[in-house]
Structures are given as C-alpha cells and as structure tokens.
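Contributing new records

If you add data, match the layout below exactly. Sequence lines come first and carry their own label; structure lines follow with theirs. Keep one chain per record. Anything else will be rejected by the validation script.
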Amino acid sequence: MKYNINLFVVCLLLSIPNMLQAQSPSTNSAPLRLAVAGITHGHVPWILGRKGKTDVTLVGIYEPNAELAQRYAKQYNLSTTLFFTDLNKMLDAVKPEAVVAFGSIYEHLAAVEACAPRGIHVMVEKPLATNNDHAKKMVELAKKNNIYLLTNYETSWYPSTQKAYQLVTDSNYVGSIKKVVFHHGHEGPRKINVNPEFFDWLTDPVQNGGGALIDFGCYGANIMTYLMKGQDPVSVTAVTQHFQPAVYPKVDDEATIIVSYPTTQCIIQASWNWPFSRKDMEVYGETGYVIAVDNNNMRLRNTQTKGEQRLKVTTSEVPVYTDPFSYFADVIRGKITVAGNGLYSLENNVKAVRILDAARESAKTGKTVFFKK
C-alpha cells in the first residue's frame, strides 16, 4: 500500500503520546497497590484473573454480596482476607494507591466520593457516570483532591482505533470528516448469559442509566469526541426501542443516536439485538474513508488509491496499551501522560456523558436536544 510522506510523518508524531516507553521516568518502580470497588460488573475477571504481570499488586476487594465474593474467591483462587463488605473500611485498612470500580455505573460516584478525599486515584468502567450531575460531582472531587479519574473502554486498546485517528488527523488522507458511523452491540445480555448480578443492574434504568443506549452508545460518544478533538456537538437526536420488552421491560434494547457538528454528522448504532457481537466504525471524509472492522483489521480508500486497500494493524506498528491496568499504573507512576482529549481522559468522558444524557432526553421527549455552552 502506498501512502504519501506526510501521512507517515503525521502518524509517527501522533503515536508518540501513546507509546509504551516512558515519557518522564518515575523514581517509584514498586508495583501499584490496587484495590477493586465492586465485582458485579461482567468485566471484573480482567483484573481478578490477571496473571503474569508485576506492575500491579491486588491489595483489597470491596463487595457487599458475600455469596458473590465467595464465588469469585474460589474461582480465581483469591484469599478471603482480600475481601471487605465496607468500602471505607477497606480503603483505610489496605491503603491502596488506586482503585478500579467494577460495580454499577451509578456506584461510580460513591467510589470517587470515598477515594478522592483519601488521595486515591480511580479508574471506572465505561461510561464515566449515568448522568451529568454525577459526572460534575466526580470532576469536582477529582480536581479538588488532585487525583486521576480515568474511564476504561475496550476500544481504547484497539490498534485500529488509534490508526483511524492517525489517518483522520492527516488531512491528506481523508480530508475533512463528513460522516462517522459506529456499530456497537451484541445479542443482548440475556442471550450472552451475563451473570445474574451483572444483569440485574445492567437492565436497571437507575443503576445503568439506560439499556443499550448507555451500554453501547458510550463507545461512539467516546471515540467521536476523540476524533473531533473535544469539539462540542451542535445537537443530539436519538430514538430508542424495545424489541424485547419481556426480557428488558425497564430499559431500551435498541438505540440510534445522531450527533451533529457544524460540518460533520455522527451516527451511533447501539444494540442488544444483533445476531453477533460487533465493535466497528466507518469514517468518511471529502477525499477518502477509513473503516475499522475490528480491533486489528481495517479497510481504506482515498482518491489516490486504486480501489479499496486492506490493512492489518498491530501494536508493533501502532503502539497502544492492550492492558488498561498497565496503562493506569504507568499514568500514576508518571511514565506517560493522559492527553487532554484522550480516550481515557476525564475531559473526553465528561463530554461523552453529556452526549448520552442528551440522547436519553431526546429519546424520551422525541425532540432534538441542543448542546449548551
């Protein structure tokens, strides 16, 4: 495949902030003392089952559900002394440097309220919060107590996500962005058999903030904010539906969100009804397009190429962290910095929550919601 020289230069420069080597070496090389706040999230095995790495030491786990705690302790061969039923008591007893939140989205605020005054850094699962009010309180606490507050998305680990950003930022390849389409979803939490504790809050309008709109709409809101370098949308319009009301009576299972910018349109398709899992995006510009098919495979075309090109990208050529806990540890140790509009960043994810909040309001009222400065 042939690219012009400007593309390679821009790609190299853009990848520097995300490279795995240290930007500012830290004198503290000890493993990060990490605790877990809640284990009801289906992604918690990412940390409980993490093996073969020495950058993080698991020092405590908060979970009030004793049966669930016993189940995971047995499954992952964890000492029962790690488990606590009171978050504040755990924080005072084990004194972690950082906490990862794997409870409901609604519980993210409580985790930050407990951690921030103690100077403990926090990384939550996507999205940052269920609503704008929670997000604002979390921002205030993080800034007042000078802690990192990051949000983890699986798509942040994808080399294809970073490569798409590089190609989009190089105006020589796609030109000005005109339309971006995101497809995120799966067959639905019931059909993929998530555990009961996860299902209970994932399908609760308070604990999760919504259904597919929140669960999968957040990916597009996060990546689009990244592609647009933090620019505010003009408006958000959304439609939600219940295709499986007997299974998900309280929350939507299908959502389409249109996020409008002055010269760009974004369409986010979030679903619990697809016949298989997918996380992909299509970016169309004046002179070309970039399609991220999955985490590694891409399809590209512009006015200078002869037809569509296929590209497989890996971390060797597009350096990204494939482990969020390593990323979190290196941020805290000062080995890397969080870009102001980066995928994990607080600034990005506050805006993502605003987009989701507007989408929820639009779907409820049937009206377009305009962003306020």
